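=== RUN LOG ===
request id: a7f3
mode: sequence -> structure
chains: 1
length: 102
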Amino acid sequence: MPTYSLFLLVLFIVPVVLLSYKKMLLEPSQISILQQPLFWINFGNIFFYTITLFSLSFMLIAKSKVSIDLSINILVYTNFILYTTFFNALRLASKKRKRAMI
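=== RESULT ===
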């Protein structure tokens, strides 16, 4: 079952990510936004934590075996997307670092 600490984490992460997006938009870079590692980290976090919030809320409201199984399956897929975006951010940062060394 979800805990209140997880809900607090979601309520902390989502506004921080939105503020980071706002900063990225107000201070544009020469690099395309899709080539910036921070964009992918933020995208993964906002996607994962908003889906997690709705999924866990659904789990608490419904409290049936089917809703719990559905929520767990949703969280598995959102976890995969989260780590895929993190991997992409690390890949982009590595490319950027290699270019800087040359």
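=== NOTES ===
The mean pLDDT is 88.
DSSP finds three helices and no strands in the chain.
=== END ===
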